Amino acid sequence: MSFHNAPELALIVPCMNEEPVLPRSAALFRAKFESLIERQMIAPTSRVYFVDDGSADGTWATICQLAMSNDCFEGIKLSRNFGHQYAVYAGLMHAQGDALISIDADLQDDINAIDDMVQRYLEGDEVVYGVRADRLSDRKFKRWTASLHYWLSGRFGVRAVPDHADFRLLSRRAVSMLGQFRERNLYLRGVVPLLGLKASEVYYTRTQRVAGESKYGFTDMLGLSIDGLTSFSILPLRIISVLGLVVFILSMIFGLWALGAAWVGLTTPIQSWAPTGIPIYLLGGLQILSIGVVGEYIGKTYMEVKNRPTYLVEQTTSGSSASGEV
Fold first, then answer.
1. For residue 315, what are the contacts with CB-CB under 8 A and spacing of at least 6?
2. Whole-angstrom Cα distance, residue 305 to residue 300?
3. Is 274 exposed, middle or buried (0-12, 13-18, 19+ CB in 10 A)?
């Protein structure tokens, strides 16, 4: 293969307070690019795009230094913290290239899997998912919650790839199609499979962070999971309807039992409080749950109809002016 046929690769790296890890990750990214260019798998014009998602430390200053030191690095600074999914989306929409790979800056994803991703792209795949071969590096609680999430996602009709996060390759056509999705409650792990393009999976082993701390806590993961489940399915609303019907039927049965017991003169220790206590607790809990689930959908509708930009770019290292994307 010659450089004439080699694709231009863009590596999208979302960053949130990643100052400690950026110098090392940038060196590894550059070495990986040099290796791929030497083997003529990618074009020499390939670039690494660091997306600063409202960092409070020296992340942007470090990105600017990297961009000045080597032409293969570019930076995109968002005006504030929009969240990981939107930082990835912003990078995809702004980066140039025939194939675009998103990867976190913490180096937990195996950069050697990029070779296999590019090879799959050269063979005709337009979407290549980086999938964890195992979750041995996670704690038991995280492994359990991850398994529960993917199980629920499947039951709710979300076409997410199990054990796949946001380490993936997208062709230019896939990115163009992704740009047509205008939803504000962005869940890329569920949206990308909806593109329907030829896809494959590359398996890798995830390692520990080389520096810094994870920016994705339990509440962040829980919020992302809720977004994923409620953005692609109305099944929770249907479950509420079924639960309401079941509780109504059980209440009727219990009421008839209480009336029958009173009719024949049967007394039990629970008769004094059961007829009123149990239905109140059941119906009260069901109502609170129902209001919460319905509120999730109303809140998402509220966010969508406001039609606010999904992200705003304050500055780039290439000197382009601030812009917004809707």
1. 77, 322
2. 9
3. middle
> Is residue 86 within 8 Å of 16, Cβ to Cβ?
no
In a domain, 3, yes or no: no
Tell me how far CA of residue 20 lies from CA of 62, 112, 141, 237, 276, in angstroms: 9, 22, 27, 45, 60
Q: How many domains does the chain have?
A: 2
What is the C-alpha to C-alpha distance for residues 51 and 321, in angstroms, rounded to an integer? 15
Q: Which residues on adjacent β-strands are paired with residue 10?
A: 47, 100
pLDDT digits (tens, 9 = 90+) for 164-202: 888 999 999 999 999 988 777 788 888 899 898 999 999
Residue that wins the pLDDT comparison between 146 and 66: 66
Return the closest-CA partner of residue 90 out of 33, 160, 175, 159: 175
Q: How far apart are the two ends of the chain, measured CA to CA in Å?
A: 39
**In this structure, are 36 and 68 located in the same domain?**
yes
Q: Within a domain: residue 227?
A: no
